[in-house]
Design a protein that fits this description.
The protein is mainly alpha-helical. It folds into 2 domains: 120 residues, Actin-binding Protein, T-fimbrin, domain 1; 45 residues. The chain has 7 helices and 3 strands; from the N terminus they run ααααααβββα. Strands 1-2-3 form a 3-stranded antiparallel beta sheet, covered by helices on one side. A hairpin with a 2-residue loop joins strand 2 and strand 3. Helix 4 packs across helix 5. It is rod-shaped, with a radius of gyration of 34 Å.
């Protein structure tokens, strides 16, 4: 049960960190090392140059990214990641990734406790450490608050999307009304012309009859 709770807390912690990809399946999403590089960049900015970690589809390219992380980042954080574990992560073996994520999380929290932190308006704590300015949620109660904020933002976005759709419908209806008004004016103009022509014909007929 404790292991399950730790993993759930780990996932909640990751959800609050902005990454470039939507996180649907962590084992697969993190397999090429790109999101791990972004995560470490977020927590330890001075350790990571994101251009060193291109997106990868092949197993070999994924391993290269993880080897780079292992050499340039994990070694400085004193996190031991074996080649066997890297192979498992790149192959999307369940449970392999979580061990590294937990180690990174523990390092970030340890540095937070060591260096202190100041709460920022976005609900995170910012602190200056050995590897640059960092930002992590200071407790899981904060994560709950941030999750609620995220939920509210989603609801607002949904309402904004609905309003946008309704506005498009209004524009479409206004366009139809304009077209109908234009058509009505054309028909009225045609009626006026026909009436004028009819009047001219009647006057011409009357003139001809009177002459006879």
């Amino acid at each position: 049960m404790a292991v399950y709770e730790n993993v759930e807390r780990l996932y909640a912690w990751i959800d609050e960190i902005p990454l470039s990809r939507c996180k649907k399946n962590l084992t697969r999403d993190f397999s090429d090392g790109v999101l791990m590089a972004e995560l470490c960049k977020h927590l330890f900015p001075k350790l990571v140059d994101l251009h060193n970690y291109p997106s990868a589809n092949s197993h070999t390219a994924k391993v290269v990214n993880w080897d780079t992380l292992n050499r340039k980042v994990f070694s400085k954080l004193h996190i031991r990641v074996t080649q066997e574990l890297i192979q498992q992560i790149a192959a999307c073996i369940p449970g392999a990734l979580e061990s590294v994520l937990l180690a990174v999380k523990e390092k970030a929290e340890a540095q937070q406790r060591k260096n202190g932190a100041v709460r920022s308006p976005d609900g995170y704590q910012r602190y200056r450490g050995e590897w640059g300015d960092n930002m992590v949620a200071d407790s899981f109660s904060d994560i709950g608050i941030l999750s609620e904020i995220k939920k509210l933002k989603s609801e607002v976005q949904l309402k904004n999307d609905t309003i946008a759709v309704l506005n498009q419908k209004v524009v479409h209806l206004e366009s139809l009304i304009d077209m109908k008004d234009k058509r009505l004016k054309e028909l009225m103009a045609s009626v006026d012309r026909l009436q004028a022509q009819s009047k001219e014909s009647q006057e011409s007929f009357c003139t001809t009859t009177a002459g006879n």
